[in-house]
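Batch manifest, entry 17 of 40.
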Amino acid sequence: MIAIIKNIKTEGPGSIENYLVENSTPYKIFESEDGDTPSTLEGYSGLIVMGGPMGVYEMDKYPHLKVVSRLIREAINRNLKVLGICLGAQLIAYTLGARVYKGHCEEIGWHDIELTGDALRDPVMLSLAKHPSVGDVWRKFKVFHWHGDTFDLPIGAVHLAKSSVYENQAFRYKNNVYALQFHIEVTKEMLIEWFEDHPLKEQILTEAEKMLSEYSQRAKNFYKAFWGE
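Output type: structure tokens
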């Protein structure tokens, strides 16, 4: 059973949920904003923590983030598979003792990340880097971003990716915890909802028409490698 923690109702698991359904993997979604979280992760095999517009440094304003951080710590202590997306990645960094803070600018849209040498030796990240049709490895490729916060690399973590705007875009802790600053889970429906009243709506959706077929397959390959299937 996989526990999926949402930090805000509009940021769900997207293509992650599609993958779990396709592979008959049991999961349960929790709405942490409403105080809906598992009391313990006993009986769970994995934890996925989604994104949200709030900052890790705003825990007094959003106390449910403290609960989510405790669940991340429990999952790491239990050696569960853990995946953090955007705010989820920042929460993992925070839980591991790293600083999370407001960045110098927002990073929004389809922009390149560049993988590190360690990422190219990491089978999970390599699955994301391989072009789904051709099979060649791309060290640099576009992913979808929407964040204004960033984090320092936790002690003991392996740096996996950077962008031209922010150095820390992905890291691995031990062999079972992955933190991604970008959104691999996005679907067309999610982007339409997220950008409904945003000035970048047309640009984002036009680029999505070109990107999503390949991007969704890269994400699916990542999920497959992450869960070891």
